[in-house]
Amino acid sequence: LRAAKMVSKGYAEQVQELLTECSESRVRDYYARKVELSLQGLEVKHAGPNRGKGVFAVKTFEKGDVVLRDPPLVATQYACNKNHALVCSNCYRYVGSVEEQISRRLLPPAEGGCAVSDDENDSECSEDDSDQQNEHVEVNEVSKQRESEEEKDAAEVDAEEGEELSIDLLRELLQGTRQLPHTNRYPLPCARRCKGDCDEVFCSDECNAVYWDAHHELLCTRRP
Fold this sequence. Notes:
Blueprint: H1 2-10, H2 12-19, H3 24-38, E1 42-48, E2 52-57, H4 98-106, H5 118-135, H6 137-161, H7 167-175, E3 192-193, E4 201-202, H8 205-219
Antiparallel strand pairs: 1-2, 3-4
Helix pairs in contact: 4-7
């Protein structure tokens, strides 16, 4: 208790400053800096009595223009989901190619993929997802029934075509020497390695730098 009182005395001015309501001019200056950095074409101002502050456009935006980027306060990818999707570790955008996403999902680890059995994947995710599973049992049962029907239909199509999805074909997809039909309509950014050369990947040098500066410089498992 004595130590707590000493700390309180030492930071009394800072604590008081945090608790003091900001003046209108200070609030305006704060949002002006925010607008200058990331909210081009927008302004923050009071929307009216008892309505608080709002974001207003000060220019005409064209179709396709980025109006506002609001990064999440906290975001992460489930460890078990890494077996399903190769995404940017900072913004979670898909990276690589459609072929790579499919092949790494189906190939075993020995072939450069991340395929795991349903039992292994369910076991890895069961602890994290237990609450959600309890809430969505009925939805999951419907989904499983639908997936079963889709798998049955897919099996019938494969049987009719007489062509199996071979390891060699999956290798070609992973290496980029074989392309699936129409995937050129859905281009993905190339996967960029972490600056420290760990297993994290990114969609751009910008995301790589932001993630590194935020915390990954301390957490990278292969930091030089």
